[in-house]
Amino acid sequence: MAAKPAANYQANLRDRTLGALDTKLAKLGIRRDFDLVLHLPLRYEDETMLTPIAEAAPGCPVQVEGSVIDTDIVYRPRRQLVCRLRDASGELVLRFMNFYPNQKNALAPQARVRAFGEVREGFLGAEMIHPRFRVLHGEAPLAATLTPVYPTTAALPQQALRTLIGKALAGADLSDTLPEALRERLGLMRFAAAVTLLHHPQPDSDGEALGSRTHPAWQRIKFDELLAQQLSMRRHYRERKSKAAIALEAKGSHVGALLGRLPFTLTGAQVRVWGEIGADIAQPRPMHRLLQGDVGSGKTIVAALACLRAVENGVQAAVMAPTEILAEQHYRKFSEWLLPLGVRLAWLSGSQAKAERDAALRSIASGETQVAIGTHALFQKQVAFSALGLVIVDEQHRFGVAQRLALRRKGKGKGKGKGREALAGIEPHLLMMSATPIPRTLSMSYYADLDVSVIDELPPGRSPVVTKLISDARRDEVVRRIREACQGGQQAYWVCPLIEESEALQLKTALDTHAQLEREFPELSVGLMHGRLKPEEKAGVMSAFIGGTIHLLVATTVIEVGVDVANASLMVIEHAERFGLAQLHQLRGRVGRGAAESVCVLLYQSPLGELARNRLKAIYESTDGFEIARQDLAIRGPGEYLGSRQSGVPLLRFADLERDLGLLEAARDAAELMLRDNPQAARNHLERWLGGRGEFLKA
Ligand code: ADP
Ligand code: MG
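That is the input. Now the predicted structure with adenosine-5'-diphosphate docked in place:
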């Protein structure tokens, strides 16, 4: 039976307005009622008292009440509404630049008006510009608590949001998710008391502590947020440990054979991390491990050893690098190391010819390929492994979070296709490598579900890179130095300025710089490397540089990660002030790989902005990747640092990892206890903080 049209129309209308409201709330990250409870004020306004007009200090927000003397529309020079208000102590002008015609009527002479705003000294004496006001009729008690000001969007007025939050707060279950004994031991406020106070503080609350978020109520909320993150990370960790992986045991002779053939011996740190990784992948549980080691510390050989373990156990390994140049370099290195052992490699990249690519795909799917190396092309849908046992991601910080999550899913056997039944439900081991160290606060929070190995020692015989900060005005001197060095048999990089807004412009700059340096160095061979070169052109340039037939390599940031040419001992970075800190560290890591003393010249253009100055200072003062990462985090904040912009996964909203380190540590310990002794409370807590929202940003 058809519904009555009118009823239908009403229902539609309601759905549509509700829909619009939902969209507006979603923009604020509010998806359910409890999110409203957790939508906390930015600041407060004090409407609990009235200030006599004569006592209103300029610049401080105050509430006044008076009766209207008169209200006029004036043209001075713009059309505006001017209302004169009087109380027992004095007079005040309320001035509105934008107004509705009926506001003039509402502000009729004699009307009683309460206005909130900042007083300033105007042309006609004290005035408030665009105050919030209301015309009073009858009884109008003052607010009993401070008025919250919430983060909101233009589309959702403050007052509407207050009403929604007020309702949610009244209807919500605010009971504590922390076991009482734990809460008392930690000296934390009750949850209900904390949120109620934060939404509606008493007028005598400590405004300073509320503003700086050090108030006990804020401490409780931040603790809860951190606890939710810890619980979520630990849950992931446990879930993973309950999954199956192929145990890659030490057997066969490949690993020993490679170690025997290397022209160097592993450093102590390499031996140690290889021990950790080897023990971990020998377990029938998927490893998720981050291998950290500063640029040049020798992570690649460790990766190769792990791949050999997979090969020895009859499963495949995949090695993924973020750029084509780096992936190719790995392919070259792995070829040199593994082909003599009879290991079958495959190469996969986005730009390779179709026939070649199809052949690689077939070989990977059939199991013919034992180690596949490539860019993120390795993890596209069409790529089906026959038996993937190990995934290695190099320079993992360069991949977006979404890509990394996709990759975790990749190896999961879906029980589809020939040979995959055996792998159903089995996950590959995952080794992520990064030269961008993760500061302790981040590894305790966003990376808490990973195991970490650190190479904290460089191979012997390296001499530290000397960093020089030189103003662009002295470019000539730099050019002279480069000429001398290259004539003396050294090789150099010349890194072109980063132009973030336009790839085309960046390319043009690289071409111009190359042409100019060719003119400046007629006696040298000057090469050019940029992202738009065809893969075989890139490979040609790189091998000419490695072979020493190119003396000076002009390059864009495509050489930022991983590129390893030991004879290159000089680097010039033009417009260094435009680069990020991690980027500068990575770039500088391209030199200092051989025994020759290396120099990195940061050419900068004055005057320097404050951020740029801080970055250059940090890179000048330190070559320690950990210190640089810490500075980078401090300068950029965790959101950008983690690349969360592209992920849409929630970051911490209230807690600040540096400032709230104590709470973070307490939350970590509490999470442990709750999972052990009180799993239901842990579930409730996660539901409260993350319900429907999935997971915290991780890995
Ligand atoms: P990164 O950790 O930055 O990826 P690489 O793996 O590229 O560093 O190693 C940098 C260089 O050091 C490479 O040329 C590599 O062959 C060399 N290397 C690695 N381990 C050692 C070692 N123990 N002794 C000497 N050279 C080494
Ligand atoms: Mg590397």
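The first helix runs from residue 5 to 27.
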